[in-house]
Write a structure and sequence with these properties.
Layout (H helix, E strand, L loop, with lengths): L5 H13 L43 E4 L1 E8 L6 E8 L5 E6 L4 E6 L10 E5 L7 E3 L2 E3 L2 E2 L6 E3 L3 E11 L5 E11 L11 E13 L10 E13 L12 E14 L5 E13 L4 E15 L17 E16 L5 E16 L8 E14 L5 E11 L5 E13 L2
Length: 404
Amino acid sequence: MKKRTLAALMVLTILLAACGGSDGGVNSVASVPVPAAQVAPTPAPSQAARTPLPPTPATTSGTYQAIATYTSFDASGTSQQTIVPQQLASEGSITLTVDTVTRTYTLSATAGPYQFPADKMVIPADSDLGYTRSFPLTSGTTPDFFSPATRQARGDLLAHTVATGAAANGALRVITTYATLFNVGYLEGFPRYLSAAQWGQFYQENASGVPGPENYKQTQGVRGLLVFGQRTDPGDIPVSGRARYALNSLTGLGQDDIGTRVLISLNAELDVDFASRKLSAIYDFTDSGDLYKYNEDGKLLTDDDGYGIVAGQVTTAVQASGSTFIAANGSFSLALAGAGSVHTQRLDLTPVPDIAKSLSGSLTGAFFGPQAAEVGGIAFLPLLGEDGSVIMQTAAFAGIRNTP
């Protein structure tokens, strides 16, 4: 299994936290978008500028049963209180309907603490199918969300709707529902039969009644990830042979050594024996990085060239595995169990005891496309911090069938 660099880990951590990852992201409130009336409209790209995209579920009409997670929060009091931790939605409880004629996405839920009215939200697409809104950067990598947005033919799609009303206490209320769809099927070698999305809804209330977006407070919300697509018909799942699927995150892109855009690896593989319908998984993650010196006030010590002074190196490793059987409908729920370690080596030779911990995770998914061409779902994968703290990352994953 290839070692993932620290930079790749940082990118994955940021992406997953933005999508409501467990522990690292559950207790943080998502950024509050400016109400639609405050955002300058962006002209649609011309026909000449559009890049044709291959058909994927994100751009193909249909009703798709989703594999989904959710977490809800309540910040209506003096401090935020998480109501429900990040968890899987019950199987079959969430469906996503894509209508490319009306350009709408309808998300229906039959279980869970979802706040949108009538257990359904209809989201009109605010950009052309297959496009995403991109904001200019102000400093470094900080987007300026108040500047006019541009659209790029990346394959993603942001859809949202904003409604106004009044809360039970009479306060002015803005209800925002959104879905950011990751249509990753636009590059060679990426999945064609499934897509993923970040979805959610939240309330903003203005108890003061004074106009202005700065007077609205985010009070309640629900958000999560979902994976949807063209499930493999149970009768089309192979009855013989073996296959291997290397799993990648669907929610973000990285780059390989020559700059080609690629999905970020989750360092996990699935092996399937179709004759016995047995599915096994291995998760193997190793990462290392430098430790730096700080003074008593916590300030980084630097050399004459302004670089941080290295004090040592820390290496974290996690190995977990598990197996299960494919259900009759082609879905699976696979528990992972294993161990993790933290090894610290200091240049001043001060001994630091190694840290060892038992760890667990899970992979929940299904097969997609003809003859189980792809696999996708939701992964809960453990990582270890430098101090041995457990970080449970949540990711939407996909894998392409290969011969072992």
